Amino acid sequence: MKFFKRCLKELTTTVLDLQAKLEGKLQVFPNPADNGLFRAEFELRSAGEVQLVLYDGNGRCIKDLLSKYLTDGRHQIVIEELKNVPSGAYYLTLTDQQGVLGVVAIAKN
């Protein structure tokens, strides 16, 4: 069994509650995303396996964007996955072996 589950069926905690707990460890620019393109920035306190997943406004997984070992420190990833989806609200989650590191709401015009 893999450590990370692919695409969760639904988020069990509201995004706003998680955002308050996670203190901006995951950020996206620009927001709203221009032409479906945005950059995700995050910092890892320790190296390890991480997963970055994109969800729609109803908590359904759209795509597992990243699932790999990363070193500690600051990381930036350019994401184009909003190009072929309707306008609306989306959520990006960052997790590691210890749980959720960040959740951020993204708007697509």
Helix percentage range: under 10%
CATH top level assignment: Mainly Beta
The chain-level structural class is mainly beta
State the CATH topology: Immunoglobulin-like
**Which homologous superfamily in CATH is the superfamily?**
Macroglobulin (MG2) domain
Provide a count of the helices: 1
CATH architecture: Sandwich
Q: Give the biggest sheet.
A: 4 strands, antiparallel
Number of strands: 7
Q: Number of domains in the coordinates?
A: 1
Measured between the Cα atoms of the first and last residue, the distance is 38 Å
Unreliable stretches covering 5 or more consecutive residues: 1-24
Radius of gyration: 13 Å
Give the mean pLDDT. Answer: 79
Short overview:
The chain has 109 residues and is mostly beta strands.
Please describe the structure with a list of short key phrases separated by commas or semicolons.
Immunoglobulin-like; 3-stranded antiparallel beta sheet; 7 strands; 57% strand; disordered N terminus
3D architecture notes:
- With 109 residues, this protein is mostly beta strands.
- It has one domain: Macroglobulin (MG2) domain (Immunoglobulin-like).
- It is built from 1 helix and 7 strands.
- The protein is globular, with a radius of gyration of 13 Å.
